[in-house]
Amino acid sequence: MPTLCKYEECTGCQACIQACKHQALRPIQNQHGFIHPYVDEKACIECGLCEIICPILNSVWVKNKLEPRTLAAWHKDMEVRWKSSSGGAFSALADYVLEQRGVVFGAAVTTKCKIKHIGITQRMELDALRRSKYVQSDIGKSYIEAKKFLQDGRLVLFSGTPCQIAGLYAFLRNHQYDNLYTVDFICHGVPSPFVFEEYIKRMETKYGSDIVNINFRDKRNGVEANLLIVFNTLKSGVRIERFKDNSFYHGFISSVFLRDSCYKCQYATMPRYADITLADYRNIGNKKKFEHEKERPLGFTGVMVNNEHGEVLIQNSEIQYEERYFAELASSQPHLKVPISKPSCSDDFFECLKNEGYDKAAKRFLPMSIKKRIEIGARMLLGVKFFYALGKLVRILTGKRSLFIE
Ligand SMILES: Cc1cc2nc3c(=O)[nH]c(=O)nc-3n(C[C@H](O)[C@H](O)[C@H](O)COP(=O)(O)OP(=O)(O)OC[C@H]3O[C@@H](n4cnc5c(N)ncnc54)[C@H](O)[C@@H]3O)c2cc1C
């Protein structure tokens, strides 16, 4: 029997499952809905490939830059920025690859609100990949599909969490394909698909209708604290929830129901595996003013160009940007250095969810703190600019690095 990585360290990248030529490994969901490999002893011939492939068992030395060139970036088309989580940099990079008849892989909301990785070849399909989905996406067979496209000489842009990108390189046995570009993002951690499923059921009961799509980051009321979660329902039209009232989002930012491996993430560090790393460029710009301040209200994507290959993609695409500096982005991004900590209530939350259902568990473990409510209220009342000016003043007066949590 193969010795796979420790259960709590497995990221669910499924590189081992996709690499197995004997279908001896299958994806199974644990009680929190996270996928783990299951070994079918009868089918396994003990070739050991899964052990060689696993990116956790075989960490690779990454040559990428420790302090990469850093940009505040945005898409030239305002419509696309409205539809993106941050500045739409991902779409600008994807546009180029699709124009070259390439293939773009990323996470999409599929039937029954399942989050899965898919590959697209047409620009009209790109909207499905846009925006953050705050649930672990099922990578399925996308490494196998990406490899086929690469071997056929097609350009491939593969986007995903840092662990999914590490899984892809491991699956490709670290073979360097000139026609492969990879994009990850600075990652807070991935929430449980089971909790998400329970949350969706709760919202379906509330609206009296099936939910067919969800936008985790709708900007119609503005970015930051004013973000909305929007549901497309079958019978009850479009329904909107404010972030601040939303238990699932609150559970995500307070890290209550993330995958176990996220709390020990090996990839919350520099250098990165991907050619390009994306992030929210928020709460910064105090020391060096933005030349393109007028672009700020719709959001910037922070872009780290981790190697020369990533540089080529930036140069070829029509991404709009201004130069910033790595230390600035890093100052607001703890997960470039350390993984998120596991809250002490996490196990109790899952126990309560199992025994008493989503509503009770959410009420007991996911209420928003008074501090967070004050912060959100202040942002809405003062507007983003004044809010940061106030934050700066408080920092100067108190000597604290930051008054507010992110
Ligand atoms: C779970 C999660 C945690 C995040 N944590 C942070 C953080 O701590 N700090 C930070 O600065 N930014 C974080 N982000 C990233 C950020 O929200 C934006 O994705 C990033 O700024 C890019 O924005 P954009 O407008 O350029 O592109 P967008 O159009 O928003 O592009 C989204 C890209 O992310 C991919 N994606 C979306 N959801 C998932 C998913 N569940 N799994 C894998 N890939 C996915 C899509 O395939 C697409 O490539 C997180 C995103 C997710 C999904």
UniProtKB/TrEMBL annotation:
Gene3D superfamilies given in the database record: 3.30.70.20
Keywords: Iron, Iron-sulfur, Metal-binding
Pfam families: Fer4_7, FrhB_FdhB_C, FrhB_FdhB_N
Domain 4Fe-4S ferredoxin-type intervals: 1-30, 35-65
GO MF entry, a single one: metal ion binding
InterPro entries noted in UniProt: 4Fe4S_Fe-S-bd, 4Fe4S_Fe_S_CS, Co_F420_Hydgase/DH_bsu_N, FrhB_FdhB_C, Polyferredoxin-like_ET
Name under which the protein is recorded: 4Fe-4S dicluster domain-containing protein
Organism expressing this protein natively: Bacteroides faecium
